[in-house]
Design a protein that fits this description.
Elements lengths: L7 E4 L5 H9 L3 E4 L5 H7 L5 E4 L7 H6 L5 E4 L9 H6 L3 E4 L5 H17 L1 H9 L17 E5 L3 H11 L4 E5 L5 H5 L4 E2 L2 H4 L5 E4 L13 H6 L4 E5 L8 H10 L2 E6 L11 H4 L3 E3 L8 H19 L11 H4 L6 H19 L4 E8 L7 H13 L12 H7 L2 E8 L7 E8 L2 E10 L2 E7 L2 E8 L3 E8 L4 H11 L4 E6 L6 E8 L15 E6 L1
Parallel strand pairs: 1-2, 1-3, 3-4, 4-5, 6-7, 6-9, 7-8, 9-10, 10-11, 11-12, 13-14
Antiparallel strand pairs: 13-15, 15-16, 16-17, 17-18, 19-21, 19-22, 20-21
The structure holds 2-methyl-5-phenyl-pyrazol-3-amine.
């Protein structure tokens, strides 16, 4: 079952033609329109459920808010720097990238930078081009036996290590996530950064840009390095602090730098680019035919896999959604949404605290997406483009709803989901489960239904004292409004007030005609 529905896709840059071809082969309607202005894009994007970009399209909050039908933004490349992911998430739009397509190209460029730094190839070539024959100036050193420090040992760091080992370099590294036993399989000995800095003749960084990696090489850490250390950044501008790098180059503490990325691109401050020991490129890491073809193919295949409900690969803002790609989880998502809808319709509380409890061993791994599904139902207000599994928790937070989930295995064989809404001292509870593939309601505010209520179609809930007149009277009100009563369930406890649920052919225009017969009434459609 497709969780996301996409028919029309806009490709707003020159992405490899195989991307369009793959999408079309899977029945999607694909339009390529490049070189649009921001206004063009804001106007055009309304008509699409999917948008595919590379790096040039700035998918800002303005573009995203104008995109009333958009379900997915795919970036053919690594990272999503040109997409406002927060704005997309708030709008329930999945953001996807192709993290592996550029790996080899980025690694090869990095190796090229290391070789350029060891032999001054770019500077020597420039000197030749200027008519010189200067052999003394460009004395280099061999890589054999030198130590390369690799900070960040993911896909790219690993490929750099393997390649530079073939030059006889010793490879050491650091990564907070990759276990030392894993990096050992590709010949990288891990150590702390404190231990790594003084060992290296060369350092290359392959981390994302985030607070902990911004300025990873700075005045302090350069001071801990060998004098003359050569550094490479083909990852993200800012991992090596640009001002500190310039100072280190000027003092000779840094012997050379290979830079493919900059804080500002293109860099306005030209001191680094113009420094004689700097080799720079205009962000060419992914600029190969092969990487572009791979990224174009990857983004198309990832979108197709998602639409077919197979897997969710490369999504950066849909962790909850990713955990729902199994057939067994589908009825539970429906149950969660239905319980959220029932809670909202019956409780009158639109704020406060929502506690979601999953019960039983087999729902242990479902607690996360079930909470989001409940919130989707709780927040749905009939208007389109409302809550979905991508934005539910974000929207809940913004609406002042506190969401807590927990898991209870007191009765391991039990499988159920309970939702409790508490606000202003009152508490309201619904409990449901899945029977076969059907989501059902077991309990409403303490009243247990004699027969579980199938949570589908138009449902009318009311609380009334048990009496033989009740059902015929309610049926009369419905008939007067031209509606049929299709099913009836009542909770146990015929002595006092009991909750009843009636399946109706459509919803009542208003509930006032029921007021004389019942104490509380609510209706909903699930
Ligand atoms: C963080 C990192 C490296 C790093 C590397 C990777 C997610 N992540 N974080 C701090 N892959 C050095 C210092």
């Amino acid at each position: 079952m497709a969780l996301v529905s996409v028919r029309r896709v806009l490709i707003s840059e020159s992405v490899d033609p195989c991307c369009k071809k793959i999408l079309q082969e899977h029945g999607l309607d694909v339009t390529e329109k490049t070189n649009m202005t921001k206004d063009d894009l804001m106007n055009e994007v309304k008509d699409y459920e999917g948008l595919i970009v590379r790096s040039a399209t700035k998918v800002t909050a303005d573009v995203i808010n104008a995109a009333s039908n958009l379900k997915i933004i795919g970036r053919a490349g690594t990272g999503v720097d040109n997409v406002d992911v927060d704005a997309a998430t708030r709008n329930g739009i999945i953001v996807m990238n192709t993290p592996s397509g550029n790996t080899i190209s980025a690694a090869e460029l990095t190796c090229g930078m290391v070789m350029s730094l060891s032999r001054h190839i770019p500077q020597a070539a420039m000197s030749m081009r200027a008519g010189n024959w200067d052999r003394k100036k460009f004395m280099g050193s061999e890589l054999l036996g030198k130590t390369l420090g690799i900070v960040g040992l993911g896909r790219i760091g690993k490929e750099v290590a393997i390649r530079m080992q073939s030059f006889g370099m010793k490879t050491v590294g650091y990564d907070p996530i990759i276990p030392p036993a894993v990096s050992a399989t590709f010949g990288v000995e891990q150590m702390s950064l404190e231990q790594l800095w003084p060992l290296c003749d060369y350092i290359t960084v392959h981390t994302p840009l985030m607070p902990s990696t911004t300025g990873l090489l700075n005045d302090d850490t350069f001071a801990k390095c060998k004098k003359g250390v050569k550094v490479v950044n083909c990852a993200r501008g800012g991992i090596i602090d640009e001002a500190a790098l310039l100072r280190a180059l000027e003092s000779g503490q840094c012997g050379g730098a290979g830079l493919d990325v900059f804080v500002d691109e293109p860099p306005t401050e030209r001191a680094l680019v113009n420094h004689p020991n700097v080799v720079s490129c205009p962000h060419l890491g992914a600029s190969t035919k092969e990487a572009q073809a791979r990224c174009g193919q990857d983004i198309a295949l990832q979108i197709v896999d998602m639409l077919q409900g197979k897997t969710l690969t490369g999504a950066v803002n849909a962790q909850v959604l990713a955990s729902t790609f199994s057939p067994e989880s589908q009825p539970w998502i429906k149950l969660g949404e239905a319980l959220g809808t029932v809670s909202k319709a019956c409780s009158a509380e639109k704020q406060g605290h929502v506690l979601i409890t999953t019960l039983g061993e087999s729902l242990k791994s479902s607690a996360g997406f079930l909470s989001s599904a409940v919130i989707v139902g709780f927040l749905k207000d009939g208007s389109k483009n409302g809550a979905n599994l991508v934005n539910a928790l974000t929207l809940a937070k913004e609406a002042g709803i506190m969401v807590t989930s927990n898991h209870n295995t007191t009765v391991p064989s039990q499988r159920a989901c309970a939702v409790e809404i508490s606000a202003n001292g009152s508490c309201y509870k619904v409990v449901g489960t899945v029977q076969g593939d059907v989501p059902v309601l077991l309990e409403l505010n303490g009243s247990v239904f004699r027969q579980p209520v199938s949570l589908s179609g138009n449902l009318l809930f009311f609380k009334a004292s048990s009496s033989p007149q009740l059902v015929p009277s309610v049926a009369g009100v419905l008939a007067a409004a031209g509606l049929q009563m299709e099913s009836f369930s009542a909770s146990l406890d015929p002595a006092g007030d009991q909750w009843c649920c009636v399946g109706v052919s459509s919803l009542l225009g208003d509930l006032s005609a029921l007021k004389p017969l019942v104490r509380e009434a609510a209706q909903l459609c699930v």
